[in-house]
Write a structure and sequence with these properties.
The longest helix has 15 residues, at 328-342. Strand 10 (218-222) and strand 11 form a beta hairpin. The radius of gyration is 21 Å and the shape is globular. The chain has two domains: 6-165, 2-Layer Sandwich (D-amino Acid Aminotransferase, Chain A, domain 1), CATH 3.30.470; 176-342, D-amino Acid Aminotransferase, Chain A, domain 2 (Alpha-Beta Barrel). 23% of the residues lie in helices and 30% in strands. It is of the alpha+beta class. It has helices at residues 61-65, 88-101, 109-122, 198-202, 205-213, 259-270, 282-290, 328-342; strands at 6-7, 31-38, 42-50, 68-70, 73-77, 83-86, 134-143, 155-165, 176-180, 218-222, 230-233, 237-242, 245-249, 275-278, 294-301, 305-314, 317-320, 352-354. The strands form two sheets. Strands 1, 2, 3, 4, 5, 6, 7, 8 and 18 form a nine-stranded mixed β-sheet that branches. Strands 9, 10, 11, 12, 13, 14, 15, 16 and 17 form a nine-stranded mixed β-sheet that branches. Bound molecules: pyridoxal-5'-phosphate. Residues 72, 196, 232, 235-237, 256, 258-261, 300-302 line the site of pyridoxal-5'-phosphate (PLP).
Length: 357
């Protein structure tokens, strides 16, 4: 499909934010990657160009019927100045699964990894080096055809934005308080829960706002059919250490298949921890809690990597996990995973991909 990647560099570079002033996703680099799709022609004109607003027809289908999918990964720069990506091939594989689910055209995964490496290397001065900081990468695809008819668009745009982000845990890992959501659901079997699509997020915001108002940081989502089984926490996958084993909800079509989830499972297995992927009801978890067997709980996702859960509240029952402190296994996973990401811990899995020497 793709012809040569063209590069048009800006002569008006922006000022870079100070390392201690980085929040999440508010600063953007000087350039972006753009590629267009036209039915009959395929993906064409891949290019790196100056970051700028888009001109899009207000009738573009993305605004009306929500054909929009995205990805999220990071580039890490260590003290030696080496820049690395973490399993980028998996992100473009998943992008293709999301695209397929939303009836949108897929991309060439290998080409996209190469194009991303090029973009990151053009912008490498934007990657902060302070501990825990990184460059967040946001690829996304939107339907651009101007048409109000309900059908799949015939034209699309794929864009990759880069955003320097601060350390998620600027002052040490902090266990979060979770509200088990009983009325709103995130996704349903046969729906779009396992696609990374904007609509899933739009539908989740109200529950998150209400949980915040009640003093919780995140929502724990239950299955949509029986509202009994645990699916995800916020926009992360979730794990529980119960009686020495690691439990995580099995993939069922409504759970997003996290790359951090998969990496966590592989690490745990390599350490000899028994990983159990199964349907986990809140009821069963609460039983384990009452029996003193619920030892640790944490979420997994690119943004926080590993996020300890200190407290869960379900139907008026409060579970305080590990004295609301970060568990040992949780901490070890965080240290190992981030160590591999920054290239300071041996990567026996071949996950870390160097962008520069
Ligand atoms: C992106 C995402 C995750 C985490 O996926 P990672 O690949 O680990 O970053 C989990 N749940 C939802 C709903 C997501 O959108």
């Amino acid at each position: 499909m793709e012809c040569q990647l063209t590069i048009d560099l800006t002569d008006q570079k922006k000022e870079k934010p100070a390392h201690d002033k980085l929040a999440f996703g508010v600063h953007f680099t000087d350039h972006m990657f753009v590629m267009d799709y036209t039915e009959g022609k395929g993906w064409h004109d891949p290019r790196i160009e100056p970051y700028s607003p888009l001109t899009i027809d207000p009738a573009a289908m993305v605004f009306h019927y929500g054909q929009a999918v995205f990805e999220g990964l990071k580039a890490y720069r260590n003290q030696e100045g080496e820049v690395r990506l973490f399993r980028p091939d998996q992100n473009f594989k998943r992008l293709n699964r999301s695209l397929t689910r939303l009836d949108m055209p897929t991309v060439d995964e290998a080409f996209m990894v190469e194009a991303l490496k090029k973009l990151v290397s053009v912008e490498k001065e934007w990657i902060p080096t302070a501990e825990g900081t990184s460059l967040y990468i946001r690829p996304f695809v939107i339907a651009t055809e101007a048409c109000l008819g309900v059908r799949a668009s015939h034209t699309y745009k794929l864009i990759i934005l880069l955003s320097p982000v601060g350390a998620y845990y600027a002052s040490g890992m902090k266990p979060v308080k979770i509200h088990v959501e009983n009325s709103y659901v995130r996704a349903v079997r046969g729906g779009t829960g396992n696609a990374k699509t904007a609509g899933n997020y739009a539908g989740s915001l109200k529950a998150q706002t209400e949980a915040h108002e009640k003093g919780y940081e995140q929502v724990l989502w239950l299955d949509a059919i029986e509202t009994k089984y645990i699916e995800e926490v916020g926009s992360m996958n979730v794990f529980f250490k119960v009686n020495g084993e690691a439990w995580t909800p099995m993939l069922n079509g409504s759970i997003l298949e996290g790359i951090t989830r998969d990496s966590t499972i592989q690490l745990l297995k390599a350490w000899g921890v028994n990983v159990v992927e199964k349907r986990i009801s809140v009821e069963e978890l609460f039983q384990a809690y009452q029996n003193g067997e619920l030892e640790e709980a944490f979420g997994t996702g690119t943004a926080a990597v590993i996020s300890p859960i200190g407290e869960m509240s379900w139907n008026g029952n409060k579970m305080v996990i590990n004295g609301a402190k970060t568990g040992e296994l949780t901490q070890k996973l965080y240290d190992t995973m981030t160590g591999i990401q920054y290239g300071v811990v041996e990567d026996e899995f071949g996950w870390s991909v160097k962008v520069t020497e």
